[in-house]
Amino acid sequence: MRKLIEATFVSLDGVIESPERWALQHWGAEHRASALRQLESYDAFLFGRVTYEKFSAAWSQITGDPYYEAINRMPKYVASTTLRATAWNATLLTGDVVEAVRALKRQPGKDLIKYGGGVLDRTLIPHHLIDEFQISLFPVSVGHGARLFEGVAPGDLQLELATTRTLPNGIVQLTYVRR
After folding, report:
1. Closest Cα partner for 144 from 17, 1, 2, 7?
2. pTM exceeds 0.85 for this model
3. How far is Cα 26 from Cα 161, in angstroms, rounded to an integer?
4. I need a labelling partner for 142 at 20 to 30 A (CA). Which of 106, 136, 148, 160 fits?
5. What tens digit of pLDDT does each residue of 116-132 get?
6. φ and ψ at 99, to 5 degrees?
7. Sheet holding 111-115, edge to edge
8. How far apart are CA 86 and CA 67, in angstroms?
9. Residue 42 is inside which H or E element, if any?
């Protein structure tokens, strides 16, 4: 069974909302190279509607960059109750999202990647569908915005720290796995 990995950017004060406003100033060559290497472990993306719409609008037309070209080539699955159609090599998950994600995980292939936390996490986490959290902790305080694991019951997160890595630009990469 393949794993579902969530990779997300988090500020020191726990904010995950709108990382394009606060994370990019710290995004360096080493973090970018690491993200590109990690893409080799995955063969499809899972998105919630909000992240899908943001990324599709911003990234789908980018060419000449190995990172974005790798993402643009990969199949994408979108969990949404409001979208009626998708583009950007994406398939809309219909019906019960929990069962749809379980079915994706049972398919042969490499692991699945999900960028960003949010509303979809409140459905996936209680059902133990996210196997690993790759958190990039940025050295910045944002002050307000949606927080990591907001709305998730504390008992639903039984995690164990697997690895840490500190990048020269001050970003700390933390990998947590489900116990």
Report:
1. 17
2. yes
3. 24
4. 160
5. 888 899 999 999 999 99
6. -70, -35
7. 90-93, 76-79, 42-48, 111-115, 4-11, 132-138, 172-178, 159-166
8. 21
9. strand 42-48
We report the CATH number of the domain holding residue 145 as: 3.40.430.10
Q: What is the pLDDT of residues 14-33, one digit of tens each?
A: 999 999 899 988 877 877 88
Q: Which two tokens stand for residue 124?
A: 């996936």
Q: Which two tokens stand for residue 125?
A: 């986490």
* Paired tokens of 58: 């911003």
CA atoms within 13 A on the CB side of 21: 10
d(CA 63, CA 25): 22
Quote the domain boundaries for residue 15: 4-178
Averaged over 148-176, what is the pLDDT? Answer: 93
Specify the DSSP element, H or E, that contains 52. Answer: helix 49-59
Q: What tokens does 4 get?
A: 């579902």
CA distance 8 to 140: 15
